[in-house]
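User: I'll paste a sequence; please echo it back and then give the predicted structure.

Assistant: Echoing your sequence first, then the prediction.
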Amino acid sequence: MRSFPADLARAQQEWSATYRELAERPGRTELRRRLYRLSAEVFFHAYWRERRPTPAAWWELRGVGRRSDGAGS
């Protein structure tokens, strides 16, 4: 398993939490804006400049967000 930078992992965790919250309360403008900002933060993170992201890398990063929120525990 890859080791992601702490700020990238945190942004993915926040993205996952915000996504779930938006699913529970659709139409919330502030949540959509936050999700958009976090998406850009994750996608354009400096970590990806050093290595091109693969589908497997994205999948692992998404797993970081899912594990940290207690889902599946």
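The chain has a mean pLDDT of 87. The two ends are 19 Å apart (CA to CA).
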